[in-house]
């Protein structure tokens, strides 16, 4: 798998953006019944960032020379865990440093348990950060808009629940923190998609003279669509 300029994510400005994205982890961790998490960073330096996941068993990987290193060593399209291994996954900017990405998306869908959530982030095509990274690194990063990732996640059995725009509008070395939503959020540094793995459909066989129960429908979760 080809890798592109992962070292740009070692810069303090990108580390601040990573902290903004990681702030979503505990929000979703509180909603999960179990405690197995996988985090994939774009660069080894991000492993030094603090995690607010007490009592969780966390496996951490980072991109290095087109492979994933860290708590395990593997190819992105051949993760070494069985199906349904993790309850929560966060993938930070994998599509900004790896290509092609389709097989990796499939693998993330495979190792996530039904009902589990993946948080996947990427640099915003509408923001200034991608151009800034190109000026600093001297080369362009791969471009995967949020809409394209939506389709890949859906193909892998992951349904989008929500989307966010995070980070500052212009690169700085301090995290942006929480900000009120506004019409210009679509120009923030990065988008984050939250997707849940669909549960397998179960066919209920009714006994004779017994009316089968109809399961209640789940409430639809509003989604702030990422436009990048």
Automatic annotation (TrEMBL):
Keywords: Methyltransferase, Transferase. It comes from Dokdonella koreensis DS-123. One of its GO terms (molecular function) is S-adenosylmethionine-dependent methyltransferase activity. InterPro entries: Methyltransf_11, SAM-dependent_MTases_sf. SUPFAM superfamilies: S-adenosyl-L-methionine-dependent methyltransferases. Pfam families: Methyltransf_11. This is Methyltransferase type 11. It comes from the Bacteria. The keyword Transferase applies.
């Amino acid at each position: 798998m080809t890798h592109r300029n992962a070292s740009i994510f070692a810069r303090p400005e990108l580390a601040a953006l990573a902290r903004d994205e990681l702030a979503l982890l505990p929000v979703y961790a509180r909603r999960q019944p179990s405690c197995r998490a996988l985090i994939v960073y774009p660069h080894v330096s991000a492993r030094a960032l603090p995690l607010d996941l007490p009592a969780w068993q966390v496996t951490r990987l980072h991109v290095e020379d087109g492979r994933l290193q860290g708590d395990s060593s593997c190819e992105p399209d051949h993760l070494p865990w069985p199906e349904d291994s993790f309850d929560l996954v966060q993938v930070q900017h994998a599509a900004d440093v790896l290509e092609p990405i389709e097989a990796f998306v499939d693998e993330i869908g495979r190792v996530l348990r039904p009902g589990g959530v993946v948080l996947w982030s990427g640099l915003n095509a509408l923001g200034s950060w991608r151009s800034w990274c190109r000026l600093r690194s001297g080369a362009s990063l791969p471009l995967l808009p949020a809409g394209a990732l939506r389709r890949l996640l859906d193909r892998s059995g992951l349904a989008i629940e929500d989307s966010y725009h995070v980070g500052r509008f212009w690169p700085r070395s301090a995290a942006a923190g929480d900000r009120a939503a506004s019409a210009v959020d679509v120009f923030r540094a990065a988008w984050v998609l939250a997707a849940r793995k669909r549960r397998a459909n179960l066919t209920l066989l009714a006994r004779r003279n017994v009316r089968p129960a109809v399961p209640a429908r789940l409430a639809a979760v509003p989604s702030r669509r990422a436009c990048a």
